[in-house]
Specification:
36% helix, Rossmann fold, alpha/beta, 8-stranded mixed beta sheet, 2 domains
Length: 337
C-alpha cells in the first residue's frame, strides 16, 4: 500500500553501486523533511545494489524500488518521473550524500517563491585522488553562480547546476518536457531547454550534497559528457538565444582567436550565425579570417561579443576590460567558455 501523496518525489537511479548505495540512501532516510517518496530506480544492476535498496524499502514505505531494464540514465530517470506523485521532484545519485536539511531548505524555497521553477544548491566536492583539478574547478565555479541573473547569463559557459543538487516543480517537466535522449549531457540540455522557455532558476547558498568524485562517474566515462557534446548542445541553444537577444543578429564578434576557440565558435556558422571577426590581444596573429586587436573593438552600440576563452584569468581580464568600455553581460556580450 502506498503512503499518502508526498510533497516531494526523489529520483534516485542506480547501477552497480553496492559500495556507496547504503550511504546515499541513508542520507535521504535521515532528512529533517519527512513528507517525501524516494523512487529507487534499478537500472539493470548485476551486483547486490537491488538487495540493498530493497532492504530500505521493506523498512520504510517512503522508499519504492522500481526496475528499468533499458540501460541508460535517461531511461531510468524518465521511468522514475512516470511513477513520481510529488508536487516537487528532487534528484539524487548513488555516489553522493545529501545534507540532512537539504529537502527542508529546497521545499521551503519553492513554497515561498512561486515564480521559481527550479532550485539547486551548492555541492561540497569530495575528490577521490589528487588529479581532479578540472572537476574541482567546475564545482567551485558552479557554487559561485547563485542568482537567476547569473545562472541565465552564464548558461552557455558550463552546466550551471550540478545535477544531483536540483529540485523542481513537477509542473515544469510536465509542461516543458522530461529528459531527452541523444548525444549530449541530458541534464545540461534540460536546463538549457527550460531556461529557453522562461523557467526561473535559483541556487541556495547552502551546500545540499557531498559530491563524491569517482573514476566511474558518467561525467568521466560517457561520450555524452565530452567537450564536443557540450559545445554541440550549447551551440544549438545559443543560436536560438542570439536570434532573440542579439540586436545585430546574425552578426557577432568572437573574443578568442586560438585554434580551439575558433573551432568551437565556428560551430555557430552552420546554423546561420555570421562571425564578423575574431578579437585577439596580439597584433601579430594572422588568419584567413578578420582579426581585430582588442583595443580597436567597436562600441557596445555597434556589436555583440561572444567570449570563447577557457583560461579563467583571461576571462576575468576580458570581462573587466569590456565593463570599462561600457559592455554589459547578457546585453552586449556573453561568456561561452
Amino acid at each position: 500500500m502506498k503512503i499518502k501523496k508526498p510533497k516531494t518525489s526523489i529520483l534516485f537511479p542506480f547501477y552497480n553501486a553496492e559500495l556507496t548505495l547504503e550511504r546515499a540512501i541513508s542520507s535521504i532516510s535521515d532528512q529533517t523533511f519527512t513528507n517525501f517518496e524516494c523512487i529507487l530506480i534499478n537500472n539493470n544492476s548485476s551486483d547486490n545494489s537491488a538487495e540493498i535498496a530493497n532492504r530500505f524499502c521493506e523498512a520504510d514505505k517512503r522508499f519504492l524500488l522500481v526496475h528499468e531494464e533499458k540501460r541508460g540514465i535517461v531511461y531510468a530517470l524518465n521511468h522514475g518521473l512516470k511513477v513520481a506523485r510529488g508536487e516537487f521532484i528532487a534528484r539524487m545519485d548513488a555516489d553522493d550524500w545529501s545534507f540532512p536539511d537539504r529537502l527542508e531548505h529546497q521545499n521551503k524555497f519553492l513554497n515561498e517563491h512561486k515564480e521559481y521553477g527550479v532550485v539547486a544548491g551548492k555541492a561540497e566536492y569530495k575528490s577521490h585522488k589528487p588529479e581532479t583539478g578540472g572537476f574541482e574547478r567546475y564545482v567551485n565555479w558552479s557554487n559561485s553562480i547563485l542568482d537567476f541573473k547569473d545562472i541565465y547569463n552564464k548558461q552557455f559557459m558550463e552546466s550551471p547546476l550540478i545535477h544531483p543538487t536540483v529540485m523542481w516543480r513537477k509542473s515544469v517537466s510536465d509542461k516543458y518536457g522530461v529528459y531527452a535522449y541523444g548525444n549530449f549531457p541530458e541534464d545540461y540540455e534540460l536546463w538549457l531547454r527550460w531556461l529557453a522557455n522562461g523557467v526561473k532558476f535559483h541556487k541556495l547558498r547552502e551546500s545540499v550534497i557531498k559530491w563524491f568524485d569517482t573514476d566511474q562517474r558518467l561525467t568521466r566515462t560517457h561520450v555524452r559528457y565530452s567537450d564536443e557534446a557540450f559545445y554541440s548542445i550549447k551551440t544549438h541553444y545559443l543560436v536560438k538565444w542570439l536570434k532573440i537577444h542579439n540586436p545585430w543578429h546574425p552578426k557577432v564578434l568572437v573574443w578568442g582567436a586560438s585554434k580551439i576557440s575558433r573551432n568551437r565558435a565556428l560551430l555557430l556558422e552552420n546554423p546561420g550565425i555570421k562571425i564578423s571577426g575574431f578579437i585577439d590581444i596580439s597584433k601579430k596573429r594572422q588568419l584567413d579570417r578578420s582579426i581585430i586587436y582588442y583595443k580597436d573593438i567597436p562600441t557596445p552600440k555597434e556589436t555583440f561579443i561572444l567570449i570563447y576563452l577557457k583560461e579563467e584569468s583571461m576571462r576575468a581580464n576580458t570581462v573587466n576590460f569590456l565593463t570599462e568600455r561600457g559592455f554589459k553581460e547578457g546585453k552586449n556580450y556573453l561568456l561561452v567558455s
